[in-house]
Amino acid sequence: MDLSRRRGPDSGPKKERLAAAPAANNANSAENANRANGPPKPGDPGELRQRLAHVLWLGGSACAGKTTVARLLAARYGLAAYHCDDAFTRHRARTTPARHPDFCRVGDLSFEEMWRVPLADQVVDLLAFYREQLELLIEDLLALPAGAPLLAEGSGLLPAQIAQLILAPHQALWLIATPTFRRRHYPRRGPWVKQLLAGCERPRQVFATWMERDDELARRRAAEVAALGLRCLATDGSRSVAETAVAVAAHFRLAAPGGVPAPSATHSSDSGH
């Protein structure tokens, strides 16, 4: 997730929701299903990939359009959509410092507390949070009905981890916002941005550090995607949200309910395979 958007590490508050997949909003049903199926065993990566073969993964940096594109694709292609940011409250309720120390430590920081940490440590902390979060995301996804295509999106989908969960490269894609685009559009994401900054002693400095942290996370994400031979798309303002959605649908090989595949799309800011 973009913790500042939670209530306070990559995030602003979002409503708890799971578009087209209401079963995941019930934590008890998820836990019951996990008890019945058993959690994925570290020694069974092949089995886990098979159980998640219906999942499409849309990761990337903050302010890259992941959530908006996921909603468009869910509506257009009849997909269930899992928004990682929305799961924070449910996940925090079922974690303990002993089992998920980084998730609890970083997730419990206030917005202002996050920025008292040196920038390099902020990046390390957030990546550690994301790594522990994935286990919780997988538990949620395995608790949902299998088979129907499902689109999972969020900033916390780290390429090296997701690469272990896919059967083919077209199952995963990352949207990476450029620094210029992020600085221009982040304040427009909603009133929560201004509200969070208003509670800080030095809002301009905090915003500058926030953007520098996200720049570094985006650079690392793009480099990791390239090293794995996977694909990312740059969000730089040169294509509309609708055009980005077309490009993402083509990569995922989506077909409309009538069976018509998404049109192919290429762009100069595309990278990977």
List its salient traits:
single chain; alpha/beta; 273 residues; 6-stranded mixed beta sheet; 12 helices
Please characterize this protein's 3D structure:
The chain has about 270 residues and is α/β, with parallel strands linked by helices. The protein is built from twelve helices and six strands. The chain has a six-stranded mixed sheet with strand order 2-3-1-4-5-6, with helices on both faces. Helix 3 crosses helix 12 and helix 7 (about 120-145) crosses helix 11 (about 205-225). The longest helix is centred in the middle third of the chain and has 25 residues, at about 120-145. Residues about 5-45 have low confidence and may be disordered.
Total beta strands: 6
Helical fraction = 40-55%
Distance between the termini: 25 Å
Give the rounded overall mean pLDDT: 83
> What is the H/E string?
HHEHEHHHHEHEHHHEHE
Q: Give the overall shape.
A: globular
H/I helix tally = 12
Unreliable stretches, pLDDT < 50, 5 or more residues?
6-43
Adjacency order of strands in the biggest sheet: 2-3-1-4-5-6
Rg, nearest Å: 18 Å
Given helix and strand content, the structural type is: alpha/beta
State which percent range the strand residues make up: 5-15%
